[in-house]
């Protein structure tokens, strides 16, 4: 049994699903299943019950989970101490980045790590914010960039990278229809939204509920570039984050959320980890203290809604 199998076991317990665990650990579902089977065979203990809702841990599995989590924590501490003994960073560093992450910051971090630590193998994993958060918690990722969730994250320490706004946008003809200010005049128009469980998806759901807006057809797209192209082509209205000037055939219909923070986070218990210290130093430009980064908008103030929401 190796450390990766333990990590797989803990992740499947937390997520209750092989499918979700495979997404978070970036392994195929057969590989996840093989890890579980190998553990059950070698331990001669049934770890999970399989049911219609996914995987539920057995009583025996729950007892072993406590020990597995401690072993993963000790393994991490062992690696941290080895880094201190060497006096330099080697091995593998995994960083997660949600699709909405500030690309320039991610690129700067990777460039600095590559140039300053030639013996360090850096891997960047792209995925949704929820996947990045889970990866940090289960130890698969050392740190990650993500959209700040609405729930408090007491087990993480985060550095603010930037802020952006979230808008409901559409082609100019939809802005004309919205002159009266009632969003429901657009309820028959296809609405392109991020996935329900994504951070932006939940922000959109709350906005729709607050304005009693119920689009008859919602299309979930987890790629803003695709969403913007569909909006510009007049396919429908959609939720975008204003990391760039809407323009190009896209009009802002309403402000969904004025300010959303993009963060880089890591487990609070790893604050003294040399790897985490290096990441903090690079993101801060080499300073000892980390100051919040709040760049000014490049596109100026955008209208909240044509005519105002009723």
Automatic annotation (TrEMBL):
Alphabetical keyword list: DNA-binding, Transcription, Transcription regulation
PROSITE patterns: HTH_LYSR
Pfam family, one: HTH_1
Segments forming domain HTH lysR-type: 1-58
Domain of life (superkingdom): Bacteria
Molecular-function annotations in GO: DNA-binding transcription factor activity; transcription cis-regulatory region binding
InterPro entries xref list: LysR_HTH_N (IPR000847), LysR_subst-bd (IPR005119), WH-like_DNA-bd_sf (IPR036388), WH_DNA-bd_sf (IPR036390)
Similarity field: Belongs to the LysR transcriptional regulatory family.
Protein name as catalogued: LysR family transcriptional regulator
């Amino acid at each position: 049994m190796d450390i990766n199998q333990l990590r797989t076991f803990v992740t499947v317990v937390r997520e209750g699903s092989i499918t979700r665990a495979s997404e978070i650990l970036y392994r195929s579902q057969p590989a996840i299943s093989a890890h579980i089977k190998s553990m059950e065979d070698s331990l001669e203990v049934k770890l999970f019950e399989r049911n219609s809702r996914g995987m539920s841990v057995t009583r025996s599995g729950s007892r072993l989970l406590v020990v597995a989590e401690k072993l993963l924590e000790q393994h991490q501490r062992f690696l941290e101490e080895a880094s201190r003994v060497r006096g330099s960073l080697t091995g593998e560093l995994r960083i997660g980045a949600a699709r909405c992450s500030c690309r320039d910051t991610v690129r700067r971090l990777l460039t600095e790590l590559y140039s300053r630590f030639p013996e360090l193998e850096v891997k960047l994993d792209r995925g949704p914010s929820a996947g990045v958060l889970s990866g940090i918690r289960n130890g698969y990722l050392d740190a990650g960039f993500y959209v700040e969730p609405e729930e408090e994250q007491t087990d993480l320490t985060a550095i603010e990278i930037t802020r952006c706004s979230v808008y409901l946008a559409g082609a100019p003809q939809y802005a004309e229809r919205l002159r009266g200010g009632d969003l429901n005049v657009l309820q028959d128009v296809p609405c392109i939204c991020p996935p329900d469980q994504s951070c932006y998806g939940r922000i959109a759901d709350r906005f729709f509920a607050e304005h009693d807006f119920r689009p008859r057809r919602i299309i979930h797209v987890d790629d803003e570039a695709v969403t913007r192209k569909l909006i510009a082509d007049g396919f429908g209205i959609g939720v975008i984050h204003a990391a760039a000037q809407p323009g190009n055939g896209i009009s802002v219909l309403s402000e969904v959320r004025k300010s959303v923070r993009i963060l880089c986070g890591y487990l609070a218990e790893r604050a003294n980890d040399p790897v985490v210290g290096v990441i903090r130093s690079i993101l801060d430009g080499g300073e000892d203290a980390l100051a919040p980064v709040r760049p000014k908008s490049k596109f100026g103030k955008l209208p909240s809604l044509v005519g105002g929401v009723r």
